[in-house]
Amino acid sequence: MNKLTVFMLAAGVIAAPMAGAANLEDVRKTLASGSDYGIQEFRKIEFDDDHRGEKEIEGWMDDEWYVELDLDNDGQIRKEQRNRDRGERYGLPSSEISAYLEAAQSEGMSSFEEFKVNRRGHIEIEGRDDQGRELEVDFRTGSLDVVRIGRDD
After folding, report:
1. pTM value?
2. Which domain holds residue 121?
3. Distance (Å, rounded) from C-alpha 150 to C-alpha 2?
4. Within-domain flag for 5
5. Mean pLDDT of the chain
């Protein structure tokens, strides 16, 4: 095996854990795309590891419409699905999500893979630390105090 092949294989192994992850600025741009579309409360944001650079956003536009968007790397809509009356409305505005992301970052998260909030107010942020290890930081709505930190070594 020549040196170039060894280098390319090593680069792929190092980059693989970062697939589907975004930095804080990328997450803010994704939130801005969702807000520009009309989402008022976000329930889930995911950086897809199946397709490079794609993002999935779910949330409420108003009291009637729940929307799911798939965005490409440039923030353009690839797929849109709207549903009326999807039950109880819950989620967070983009400004609150940013605060939780910053709090997760202060716990060592350097890249983000998924943000989600459930109807009971449990917030889960998944991502990676500077060494590429998986990290999950959990909160409750209304408080930036960390409820749980999970690390995969």
Report:
1. 0.82
2. 18-151
3. 40
4. no
5. 84
